[in-house]
Amino acid sequence: MASTVRSGCAPLHQLVATQAAAALALLSAARGGLTMILCATAAAALLVITWVRIRGLWAYQWLAAMTGFATRRRTTRFHDLAVAAQLDDPGPVTLLDLPALPPLRMLSDDQRLDLRLVLCGGPAPVDQAGAPAISYRSLGPDVPLAHFRAVLAIRSNGLSGDDRRRAVKSLVRKLKATETVRPEADLDPGDALHESWSSVTAGGLTLATFRCRPEPGAVVSARLLTRLLHLPAAATTVALTLSPVTVLVRIAAPEPAALETAARALGDLLASERFAAHRCDGEQLPALAATLPLANRPPQAPFAAGLALPVIDHGLLLGHNRQGRAVLIRPFRAAPSRMVLVGSARCAQLIAFRSLGIGARVVVRTNRPAAWATLRQAVDDESLALNPAGVPAGSQLRPTLLVGDDGTDIAEPAPWTTTLTVLDEADPDLAASADLLLLQTLGPDEAALLDPVLDLGDGTAAALTEMPPDLVAIITNKAVRWAAPAPTFVEKVLIGHPARHIALHQNKRQISI
Predict the structure, then answer these.
(1) pTM, whole model, 2 decimals?
(2) Beta bridge partners of residue 53, listed in sequence order
């Protein structure tokens, strides 16, 4: 696999080929006749394939690519490709899911470990013209990534079993990471891969891999990595080795035309950062394998400068805080997740609508379908379903949000499937079981009911009763954040204002939903 991503040509190869061509030329001059013609032709061909560059590669490299493309099997399954990539270096590999990108010094402390970092992310769908996508993009020019995943692959350089386990355990503890067995975010183990000359199709996506070559003095900056992950693609995968620093980029799009748009954007981006992008034509399947965390280090020339890792904001943009900064929630995870909203149905509709905007499917189970009818009519595909018989399976690129609008617990454990239970009144048991709890303005009795369960500290319960009706409190791990959803024009037309109004009249609470 490694040979498929080799770049450049050693001067010795050209020297030897030139000497061979000269020898053929002398032989042709000495023999004459047919021998002269054959030797002269062979000498010319040798010089051409050795010294002629086409789209950044020598002609002999294109010849090798065409030969490999014509002779290898070009249809396989992703699981088999991942296994073959690991067999290139059969030593033990540990894969870690990183909750956030750490400072680079934390990754470079132990030189005995060979580290490979694979980043995969994507913005809200840029090729969709429906109301949810248009509305979500109007939330601001710098909408964070809709999804992001960082996987660190760890190999040891000759460490014994016990020493390796101690070194890996120490790194896991420092990074607060969790081990994983799933190497990729945009591909499933059962996906069938079909290679063409310039791309690979898999799981409804078209993928292309590129080698990134720096100009003298170019650096792999945090800005470069952030811009790469924000390319207009369904997903962008950046595979990095840390010593020396090398970069491969894989982009995925739902169709070939969108892939070409993303490829042009990648070329323009890299040119502005003093890099060149070489598309691995004829070698797309082996190059895809080289981007996997399990793959061995690709033999590229190291960059002159080191690597800087960015801070990546990602998730669903719920609103903004008092300082005007985006407040994100991360409802979708590989493990089943549960959200509980104590608030209005309109707030639930706003969350569902924005989930559609980042590419999720939404399934609503409700005893008041008329309240969702306008939203359903605004979605021109099957991304939003009311009271269907089943729930579609989710994935990182296409998660599923299951909304229970009748106040009952609808937890259905499945990967990349999140349940949102909408409560007209606070329920301490459901609130305590939530991975993510969303609260709109509470009445005093509701706050008193939830305070012992949530254990938020002095003053927080009172703040939940006094916050403005257009504010949402986000509670995770006993920490509280505040967000004002600020509906877009489209959301105001389709949903209205998502506030929850509480008034006390004759000791009876009236809740506007």
Answers:
(1) 0.79
(2) 58
